[in-house]
Amino acid sequence: xxxxxxxxxxxxxxxxxxxxxxxxxxxxxxxxxxxxxxxxxxxxxxxxxxxxxxxxxxxxxxxxxxxxxxxxxxxxxxxxxxxxxxxxxxxxxxxxxxxxxxxxxxxxxxxxxxxxxxxxxxxxxxxxxxxxxxxxxxxxxxxxxxxxxxxxxxxxxxxxxxxxxxxxxxxxxxxxxxxxxxxxxxxxxxxxxxxxxxxxxxxxxxxxxxxxxxxxxxxxxxxxxxxxxxxxxxxxxxxxxxxxxxxxxxxxxxxxxxxxxxxxxxxxxxxxxxxxxxxxxxxxxxxxxxxxxxxxxxxxxxxxxxxxxxxxxxxxxxxxxxxxxxxxxxxxxxxxxxxxxxxxxxxxxxxxxxxxxxxxxxxxxxxxxxxxxxxxxxxxxxxxxxxxxxxxxxxxxxxxxxxxxxxxxxxxxxxxxxxxxxxxxxxxxxxxxxxxxxxxx
Amino acid sequence: xxxxxxxxxxxxxxxxxxxxxxxxxxxxxxxxxxxxxxxxxxxxxxxxxxxxxxxxxxxxxxxxxxxxxxxxxxxxxxxxxxxxxxxxxxxxxxxxxxxxxxxxxxxxxxxxxxxxxxxxxxxxxxxxxxxxxxxxxxxxxxxxxxxxxxxxxxxxxxxxxxxxxxxxxxxxxxxx
Lengths: 441, 176
Ligand SMILES: Cc1cc2nc3c(=O)[nH]c(=O)nc-3n(C[C@H](O)[C@H](O)[C@H](O)COP(=O)(O)O)c2cc1C
Ligand code: SF4
Ligand code: FES
Known about the structure:
The complex is a heterodimer. By secondary structure, chain A is of the alpha/beta class. Chain A has 17 helices and 9 strands. Chain A has helices spanning about 20-25, 30-35, 40-50, 60-65, 90-100, 100-115, 130-145, 175-180, 210-225, 225-230, 265-270, 305-310, 330-340, 350-365, 370-385, 395-420, 425-430; strands spanning about 75-85, 115-125, 160-165, 205-210, 240-245, 250-255, 280-285, 295, 320-325. Chain A has a 5-stranded mixed beta sheet with strand order 6-5-9-7-8, sandwiched between helices. Chain A has a 4-stranded parallel beta sheet with strand order 3-2-1-4, sandwiched between helices. In chain A, strand 7 (about 280-285) and strand 8 form a beta hairpin. The longest helix of chain A is centred in the last third of the chain and has 25 residues, at about 395-420. The two termini of chain A are about 40 Å apart. The relative contact order of chain A is 0.11. Chain B folds into 2 domains: about 10-85, Arc Repressor Mutant, subunit A (Orthogonal Bundle); about 95-175, Glutaredoxin (3-Layer(aba) Sandwich). Chain B is built from 8 helices and 4 strands, in the order H-H-H-H-H-E-H-H-E-E-E-H. Chain B has helices spanning about 10-20, 25-35, 45-55, 60-70, 75-85, 105, 110-120, 165-175; strands spanning about 95-100, 135-140, 150-155, 160. The two termini of chain B are about 35 Å apart. The interface between A and B is large, with 60 and 55 residues. The complex binds flavin mononucleotide, iron/sulfur cluster and FE2/S2 (inorganic) cluster.
C-alpha cells in the first residue's frame, strides 16, 4: 500500500491508450537510451541484480534466463514475448498492452539489446483485438520516430518488433507451444532440453518472456535496481499486477507491493469485498492452475514465498474469488472441461487423463457418483501429469492436477454432499428448470 | 484440441460465394508483407490464414489449396493448423462470430444464464448460426476479460461485459 504504481503509472483508464508523445513526456524510452549506452551483458547483469522473476507463472529469474543465450554461435537470436494470456482468471497483460503498449515495446527493445536479438515477436492471443490494435498503433508510432526498425534511436542497430496473432489455443501460452505456433504449426509443446535459450525459433537461441516481465525490464533500466527493489521482498522483487475476478463487488486489476499486500486486502480493499455481503469460501490466487486456498488461509502477503508457504502459488496473479454459496464440484467440473478441451493430445497421461478427470467429476456433479468415485478422482489425479518426472511434455496436465487435488483436500465435503444428495446443487437446479442436462453453459 | 466439426460439409455454392469475395491475387500484396516478417515462409501461415479468413469470411477448400501453395507447406499442414485453433473456420459462419465465455470467473457471475438467453432468443445452440446468417455463436474458454464477467466477444470487433441475459441479447440486436 502507499505504492506509486510503476507499470501502470500514467496509464489511462481501460479503453484509452497512452500515445508515444504522452509516453515520452513521462520519461518513456529513457530506459532504452540508457540500455543502448551500456554493454549488453551489463544490461543482463542489471536485470539479474533487480531479481525480477518471470510474471508468466513459473517465476524464473529473467536475468538468469537471458544469461543462458550462448555467445557467438553465428546464428541470429530471437525474442518472443508471451502475450497469449489464456490462463482462466488472468487479464493483467491486457492492461499493459491496451493502456501502456510503449512500455512493453521498450521492454522488448531493452531485452533484444541485452540478448543480441534483432527481431522480436509479440505473440498476442487472437481473442484480444483491442490489445492487438493498441500494440500495432504504438508500433507504428515507434517505427515512424525511429524507436523500432533499421536504426534504433539513430545508433545504427536494427531491431524489428512484430505482432504475431494467435488463434485460440491455451497451450500456445506454454513457451515451446508458442514457438511451434510462431513457426506456423499446431501449438505443440516440445521436449526440453534443448531449452529455447539454446534452440528455439528455427533452431536459433530464443528468449521467451511474459509481457509484464518485459515491461519490468524497461522500468529496471530506467529507474535503477534499487528503485525497482524498493517494492517487494528479497525473493519477490518489484511490484505485481494482479487481476481479481469472480465473486467480488469490483472485479479489476491493481498494481501492488507484494510484500505488504495480503490476499485478504486484495479482495477487501482493492476489489470491494466479497459481493452481496456474503462470506468468502475459497480463493484461487494465481490463475486457475494453482491449488485453491480455503478462506482461513488468505492472510498472507502476495509474495511467491508466502503464498507457497500457505499451500498455493502466486503464479500469474489471477485471483479468483469464490463465495460461500459456491459448489466446489461445479467449479471443478468447469475447470476440468477447460483442461480437457485445451490438452494438445501429444501425451497419453494428459490427453486421456484430463478426459478421465472431467468424466469422473461430472459423474459426481450429476449425482451418479459414489463415495469411491471421490477417492478414484484423487488417485486418477495422481497418475495424470508429471512433467517434472518426464511423463508429459509440458505442465498443462499438472495444471489440471493441482486444482483437483486441492479441491478434494480442502472441500471434500462438497463432493460427499453431491454424492449423497443426488448431485451438485447447480445440477439439481438446472434439472428443475428443465434445461438440457449437459454440464456446460 | 478443438472439438471435431459435426456441421454438414459446405456446399459448392457456399464455397463459391466465399471465394468470390476476394481473389487470391488481390490479397497477395498484403500477404507478401506478412511473409517478409519471418526468416522462413512457413512461419507466415497463421497471419496468412487470418488475412484470407477476414477477406473471405471462412477458409474454403480453395483457400486452403491457395494458402498451402503460397506459404509452400503441404495442404495437410494447413488443414492441421486450421483444425487445431478454435478461431479458424473451415465451415461457413455468420457475418459475426460471437464467443460467449463459459469459464470459471464468468460462470461464477452468471455466464450460463447469458448463454441460455442467447440460445433462446436467437434460436440456435452454441456452435450454430442464425437462420439469417447474422451470427455464429461459440461457447468459449476464458477470453481474458474476467474483470468484465460474464462477457462475450464479437471476433475481430467488440467485447461486451457485465452481461445480464437481457443486456447480452440487446447488445447483439443493436449491432447493425
Ligand atoms: C499450459 C501452459 C500455459 C501457459 N500460458 C502462459 C501464458 O498465457 N502467458 C505467459 O506469459 N506464460 C504462460 N505460461 C508459462 C510459459 O511457459 C513461460 O514460463 C513464460 O512465458 C516465460 O516467461 P517469464 O519467465 O517472463 O514468465 C504457460 C505455461 C503452461 C504450461
Ligand atoms: S502435457 Fe498435455 S498439453 Fe502438454 S504437450 Fe503433453 S498432451 Fe500436450
Ligand atoms: S472466465 Fe470468462 S473471461 Fe475469463
